[in-house]
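re: that chain from earlier
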Amino acid sequence: MAEQREPVILVTNDDGINAPGIRNLVEAVRGLGKIVVVAPDKPQSGMGHAITIGIPLRLHKVHLFEDIDSYQCSGTPVDCVKLAVDKILHQKPDLCISGINHGANHSINVIYSGTMSAAVEAAIESIPSVGFSLLDYALEADFSAARKYARIIVEQMLQHPPDKHCVLNVNFPIATPEEIKGVKICRQAYAKYEEDFLERLDPNGRKYYWLTGEFVNFDEGTDTDVWALANQYVSVVPVQFDLTNYKLKQQIENDWNIFSQEG
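^ sequence. v structure.
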């Protein structure tokens, strides 16, 4: 009987290769396959799906994880995925996992998140992926529950290979493993930050602005990621990079009188 090939797991993040979150993610999946880490050399939070154009990208091998090949990249999380596939692995990995992010990526945060954009980029490249985030922003955050459930989810994805364009957005509440009630498959809540820009003066008397805001949940549903997290569940939201609004597309085709008979 032929020996089963060891799956290749690409690990990345947006908080930087030295962040506690990525170290916890590596430990969570250690032993599940051949792990390769390619992550930014500095924090890249809020970069969304940005790529580096017009300036050189640097890629250096580092020795931060025992018995695991790891590289730091001067670019964005999306750059890391692109370079990993093209210049390090020279093939598509079986799975790309991103995180564990320091802070929530539920609801509208998925749009801005570098953590999730790395996962989405992998899915664009036909690599099933998952982004992991913990609601705790603190560097000394307790990742024990996140490690436990990240491993469970990765095991499931390896045992039951999903569609090659699969992207999962997974968020963990601030809780111990014993306090978590389970896992909920959710939809993305309609919730966002009501933003404000504080106007201040620098030491030279010039104006600058500091972004602040308050998170507001407009969604009363009990099937959302925000609800699940508030009730001590791990939230799993399947997302996609096809942004087409098919319902609106059909409505416009039916209602607008600007189309030729030939279509």
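The mean pLDDT is 94.
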